[in-house]
Amino acid sequence: MFYGRSICRSIGRSTSGLSSCVSVSRKARLPCVAGRWSYARGGQIAQICRSYGTTTIHAGELSFGQPLHETHPHLLQPGELTPGITAQEYYDRRTRLAGKLPKGAVAVVAAAELVQRTGSCFHEFHQDPDFLYLTGFNEPEALAVIGKSQDAHGHFFHLYVREKDRKAEIWEGSRSGTQAAVDVFNADETGDISSIKTILPRVLSDATQVFTDITQPDQGVSGLWRFLYGTPRRKTDFSELIDSRKIKQLRHIINELRAYKSPAEIELMHRVGRMSGKAHTDAMRQSFTGERDLDAYLRYKFITNGCDQIAYEPVVAGGKNGLGIHYVRNDDVLHDDEMVLIDAAGKKGGYISDITRTWPVKGKFSAAQRDLYSAVLIAQKSLVSMCRADADVSLDKLHSITENLLADNLKQIGFDMSGKAVETLFPHHISHYIGMDVHDTAGYSRKAVIREGHCITIEPGIYVPDEDRWPKHFRNMAVRIEDSVAVGEEKPLVLTSEAVKEVKEIEALRD
């Protein structure tokens, strides 16, 4: 039922080694059919088939647990394993990871689990970003083992997945199965994940060290949960398979790989930024009377513009609701004399965008709204211009600069900025890393100097409480302006410039 490695995007391995071109230049051996081997060249759909007597099955007629170019050519280009990212790039990522491991060491990474919502209903599946980054495999219940190899491939890659199961697939949809783990995702070895307890001890027995982040149960539960259900086990069955002296954290190695985006990743994030930014600008053209309506419009536009889904729960905060930085109820009325703060963006191919815009509900700024908005915009544009390697700054340094810029700008419009005023009015950080996660590469230092390939946000904001200390005409106003930015050597690339932010541009949309 499955096609062979010759169609594995850009790295279809033949019997004589690895071809790294997008169109495989050597014949690649397909699985044996009726006692003979079939061969395919290039990866064109018409040339990828298996024959069963008088019946020929093309790859496009087969089913998998995720879109492939052969089944969804409207979503993926030839050579891509996920939208925008080729199989060759996934192979190169695994090779770089293996290159950072000590001799004889392996890395073990697990897929995410499907999270039940209620009963037989479940939440939309979200793959573990580290697992997706290394494998391109977008199904739950899977495990990857990666290490250095002694041959020309540069690494070995084991991928254990759910096997094909007709009965289960009737209810859950298609699975890719173990044969596709080899043929499509280029694993050197595979197996049914249901047998992992017997497979893994053999795989890990000879490893000198095991780099992983999955030996401890998730401790991120609330105090109430611990009170009701107890503390999670200190050890898992998996961790008990491994000599504790062999276990090392994988996080810092993965972060170093993921923090620097490839040209393909930046291009994909730019596409998502354009799609998301256009949705913001389209929303500014419309009139809305409720937060929920605006929320629904943005979700719709992200998808129709080409995104797969929303990147995170949107903030649609009218008036004083914007003082709640992560306000996501989005259930209030929008008033013409207020501004609305929108923090929302889309996601595609596992990569997100992150945008915040603030605009007047009626389309035109009042004098006070314009002054506060401009104070934030001036700072934001100045900080964006510093997102380049030759500026020699870190995220923490950018934050310090932001505080000074905002304090100066707010003084000019009548704010008393003595004491810790700036910390009250600007309580969050100026930036975070972005990529496959909204807050990407958790634990990667904000003290690191930004370099070409880093992708970050720039998001100054001012949130004015209803307190006597602040000028009356600014109270209960909130302004945040956020762009996603790719750091260049000498200049930044703003990934979200389709979302307009100049006062004149915003007001012109309703003319």
From TrEMBL:
Pfam family name, one: AMP_N
Cofactor(s) listed: Mn(2+)
Enzyme Commission number: 3.4.11.9
Domain Aminopeptidase P N-terminal, chain residue ranges per copy: 85-221
GO biological process: proteolysis
Catalytic activity: Release of any N-terminal amino acid, including proline, that is linked to proline, even from a dipeptide or tripeptide
Entry annotated with the keyword Protease: yes
Domain of life, source organism: Eukaryota
Molecular function terms, GO-annotated: manganese ion binding; metalloaminopeptidase activity
SUPFAM superfamilies named in the record: Creatinase/aminopeptidase, Creatinase/prolidase N-terminal domain
Keywords: Aminopeptidase, Hydrolase, Manganese, Metal-binding, Metalloprotease, Protease
A GO CC term assigned to this protein in UniProt: mitochondrion
Known function: Catalyzes the removal of a penultimate prolyl residue from the N-termini of peptides.
Family in the record: Belongs to the peptidase M24B family.
Protein name: Xaa-Pro aminopeptidase
Record lineage: Eukaryota, Fungi, Dikarya, Ascomycota, Pezizomycotina
Gene giving rise to this polypeptide: ICP55
